[in-house]
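Final report, closing paragraph on structural work. Over the funding period we assembled a curated collection of sequence-structure pairs, and we close with a single example.
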Amino acid sequence: MKRVIKIGGRAQSAPDLVARLAEAWKSAPRSFCLVHGGGDEISAMQRRMGSEPSFIGGRRITTREDVEIVRMVLSGLVNKKLVSSLVAAGVPAVGISGEDAGTIVATAIDADGLGRAGKPVSVNADLIKTLLGAGFLPVISPLASEEGGLPGDALNVNGDDAAAAIAIAMGGAELLLVADVAGVLDGGGAPMSSIAPPEASELIHHGVINKGMRAKLEAGFAALTGGVGRVRISTLGGLSDPTEGTQLGLGLTT
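Its predicted structure, as stored:
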């Protein structure tokens, strides 16, 4: 079973994150890769450097100057800190970026509105498969090369979008989007066991789902459309409990 696990930025601060990931890897080595976020760290660095982060629909507005901050924080600080912690826990983790070996190629979503924010158009999963085949855990930061761009140009890709694209390219059995909430919450604040596009659209329309969760749902439904076997949104408990969280489905009802 090949899984793609995306760890949201806030979920990365959980004290038991590394222990849970190490347990999952040791119980099923070579069975998954990780994609990580780091939005809070990027925002903090932007503020230190004199700019205020802005978002549209849960996706970060990224200027050309911001791309360098995103590279520094995601592919540098966040990626290497997570890799180092996993290695210390006995997991043979290797940090890569979506830019490495042309793993993720993207195009700008809305150059006028979102700037250097990109949407994956292709994924070359060869490097990920090679690392897994050799017994290493790939830990991937979601930057991408720009399709048709100048050499060295990069786009900031939402981590959920990157994870969905990788899961499709890998023929993944499951995409697990790990968040800091128990799943998709209904109007009363309770986690839903499952959700389909009509229910999601209704909750978005009424403002119950917004920002980051909306981006997760869009990415999750795209993964299912692309052939991924199963998509869930859960807390870290979903790493070991396949029943935890909200399961997404194109034909499921709650």
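The chain has a mean pLDDT of 92. Helices lie at 17-27, 39-48, 64-88, 126-133, 159-170, 197-205, 211-225. We thank the funder for supporting this effort.
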